[in-house]
Every structure is written in C-alpha cells, then in structure tokens.
Amino acid sequence: MTGSGDKEKKEVDIFRDTPVRLLGYTNEVGESFRSQMHVKWVWASYVVASAYVVADTIDKSWKAYAKPAKGSATRGTTVTHTAIDTLLWQGLASVIVPGFTINRLCALTQFVMKTGFKSAPPGVMRWAPTVIGLGAIPFIVKPIDHSVDWVLDRTVRPKLSGIRNDSVKS
User: Which family is annotated (predicted)?
Assistant: First the structure.
C-alpha cells in the first residue's frame, strides 16, 4: 500500500490548468464587444488568442521532445504529432469554434433587438449583444472543448499513430 507521499504529483499545465487558459478566449471577448469598438480591436483580440495557441503548441512540442520516443515512433514523429494535435485542438477549441459561436450569438441578439425591441432604450439596444456574448462564454467552453475532443478522436488522432488520446487535455 502506498502512502499519500508516494503519489505522483500531477504536473500543472500552465496553458490548460491556470488562468492563462483565459487568453485563449480573448477573441470571444473581442467578438462580444464588436458592436462597441473598432474592428481593429476585435482583430487584436484574435492575435492574442492565436499567440496563446502557438505558445501552447510550442510548450507541448518541447515537452514531447524532452521525453524519449516510445515504440517505433521517432522523437521527431512524436513531436510533430503532438504539435499537430495541440495546434488543431487549440485552434478549434479556443479560437475558431467559440469565436464563430459568440459572433453569431451577438449578431442574432443585435438582429432580435433591432426587429423585436425597437422601443428599447438606446443603451439596452447597444449593450445587449455585448452582455449576452460575454455571458455566454462560460457556458460554451466545456461543450466546445468536449466536441472538439470527440471530433479529433474520430478523425485526426487515429492517424497520428505516435500520440496518445490523453496528450491534449480539455
């Protein structure tokens, strides 16, 4: 029987297990504020989120490089597969799918406000898409993460022979 002191400590993934993960959602905040600010600030939010994706890809690739290759996979193959998996997962789960979701939700809110609530005060008309977009972010994160895992587990990951399915955590 092993004591609690013998348990392996789980490594904290700074890009997935800490508030740094929120940088991946910068573009959703930008999309929420699209009706409030110049489009260059929305694009800047995508730059921040994309930098987060690249940083996590580099981090996971570096960690894969530091480990010895397993089985018949070469270190280069393992690193490449890890980089592809991380880049795809983060790109889809942190930037593309949630950015599109919040963009469409805010556009729908704006449409509904203009067509169904014409008598609403101007402040409500202006801020409703932003408030609804920001409010939706916490509710879309886990479903999108799990959906992206599901899709990658059934498409790309089986093709990446040297990578385990748990190498990218959601």
Answer: Belongs to the MTFP1 family.
Question: Does residue 118 fall inside a structural domain?
Answer: yes
Cα 92 from chain centre: 6
pLDDT tens digits, residue range 80-108?
Answer: 999 999 999 999 999 999 999 999 999 99
82 by DSSP, 3-state: which?
helix
Residue 157 has a CB neighbour count (10 Å cut-off) of: 21
Count of residues for the chain?
170
Residue 132: Cβ within 10 Å count: 18
What is the C-alpha to C-alpha distance for residues 28 and 105, in angstroms, rounded to an integer?
11
**CB distance 126 to 54 below 8 Å:** no
- CA 1 to chain CA mean position, Å: 40
Let me know if residue 4 belongs to a domain.
no
Indicate the number of domains in the chain: 1
> pLDDT, tens digit, for every residue of 144-155?
999 999 999 999
Residue 1 forms part of a structural domain: no
The DSSP call for residue 67 is: S
For residue 128, give Cα distances in angstroms to 2, 16, 84.
55, 30, 38
